[in-house]
Amino acid sequence: MKRDLLLTVLCLLVTAAVAHAQGSTGTSAVSLTVTAEASITVNTGTTTLTSSGIFADYTGSTSLTYLIRTTQTTGSGNIVLKVTTDFNCAAGGPCVATPPTAGDKLAYTCTADAPGTACSGSQTASTSATTPVASFGADAHTNTAGASATVGWSLTNDPIYKTGPYSATVTFTISAS
Amino acid sequence: MFTGFQLQCKRALIILLFIFALASATPAQAQLGLGLVPMRLELKMAPGQQYSGALKLSSESGGKTRIRAEVLDFNIDATTTPQFERDLPQEAATSCKKWLSLNPREIEIVKGGFLNVRYTLRLPADLPEGSYNCAAGFSTLPSAEAATTGMGMRMAVRIVAAFYIVVGSPSVRGMLKEIKLEPLPPAKDQTEGGWQAVVVLENQGPMYFRPAGKLEVLDAAGKVVETAEFPSLPVLRERDQRFLFPLKTHLEAGHYKLQVNVDIGTGEIQRGTVDVAVEAPAAPAAEQK
Questions:
Q1: What are phi and psi of B128, to 5 degrees?
Q2: Nearest CB to B30; choose among A45, A67, A135
Q3: Which of A7, A73, A164, A170: CA 20 to 30 A from B181?
Q4: Which of the residues B232, B242, B243, B264 would you substitute to probe the A interface, choosing the one with the greatest number of A C-beta atoms within 10 Å?
Q5: Which structural domain range is residue A87 located in?
């Protein structure tokens, strides 16, 4: 009798232990919300413009790497640029805001790897408005290494420019609208 | 005493250390980068309500980066390019910039680091129903060392989060206003330009919308020669917004139809068709049906 009771108690204890063990390995819901995000990297902090011939335009290029994820149905994104600090116009060199000669300009062309769509044709950079580099539609994704874009610059080499070094600042903006 | 070999090794080491020191002292060539999440926030709020959250800003730069945070107005211009500016006077009535604050405003992030930037929106108690938009921008600040020699440009990057605040339950009201064909200038190294279809949508209400639909180009026989989807651009409240569709198809001289089917978010499909004539090299004449 004692032995049966002992076995019953032992059995109950084992059952309880198993039940407890099962309870402690229950499931738990994990949820997250994946949102639109992006990054932009200019691969070199400065771009030098050089002229390859007598009064040939100054040219150079700037390369970018971007990562983007836009929302599935209502997403859109852009990379744009703007000349945020002009060349030293007062020194008699190139000037984006008020070119010394009509027709002088800082122009550029763009390339962009998928999923970006590069700007079309030749664009003219401005100090007063941003101008396009690349755009993205809804549900656009790069891989983790990112995608590349380049901007090829062309600055008029006007004989009227006074000699000397000249530098401007260009700001690239990435956004989702 | 050093042997000749030891002296050579010592000189090589000094040269290597010099090169390393020089490379470390020239951040001008270093990459500059920023990352941000989320990039867009759409919040439904009540007049007088306050709301706070965080934007995760990361540095993708090659070194320590100084960043400035600022609140911005924004709109989408006639070329569908977003314009983010400290002050766009024409947006003053519908901008949420004045209710948005960011903390901190001056930021320094180490290479590969990140920071949560807190944003707070405080809406006025008497704010009328409608949608309001503004943005938070984060710009790298150029270092003094980032000067160029000769003719050159210093680079900076900015990353922007767009805010859309909806107060109350404003209805979407808008219409398909215009469809036309415009010539495009020739691309570099090309003599002949192309064409782009332009669709103008008018937002008549206090609520922004994002259209969905397509534009079709049909030839004189009624055959579809090109189809393009509407990009998911916002049409901000109370304005006309141009949508551009640069055509990939070379249009020979002749007659074409531009056909648009678009839903501005009301569930109703708005349709429009325009006959256009391409008379190279003259500009096309258009007549609304």
A1: -70, 160
A2: A45
A3: A73
A4: B232
A5: 37-176
- Is residue A81 exposed (0-12), middle (13-18) or buried (19+ Cβ within 10 Å)? buried
A166 touches chain B (CB under 8 A): yes
Which chain A residues have a beta carbon less than 8 Å from that of B146?
A: 45-46
Q: Across the interface, do A36 and B232 touch by the CB < 8 Å criterion?
A: no
**Homologous superfamily of B30-143+152-167:** Immunoglobulins (2.60.40.10)
Distance (Å) from the C-alpha of residue B114 to the closest C-alpha of chain A?
A: 12
B-chain residues near A129 (CB < 8 A): 77, 81, 83
Please tell me the class of the B174-288 domain: mainly beta
Does A101 map to a domain?
A: yes
Rounded to two decimals, what is the model's pTM? Answer: 0.84
A7: helix, coil or strand? Answer: helix
Instruction: Decide: A143 and A77 in contact? Cβ < 8 Å.
Output: no
CA A61, A40, A167, B136 torsion-angle sign: positive
Residues of chain B found within 8 Å of residue A135, distances taken between Cβ atoms: 80, 231
Residues of A in contact with B74 (CB under 8 A): 177
In chain B, list all ranges with CATH 2.60.40.10. Answer: 30-143+152-167, 174-288
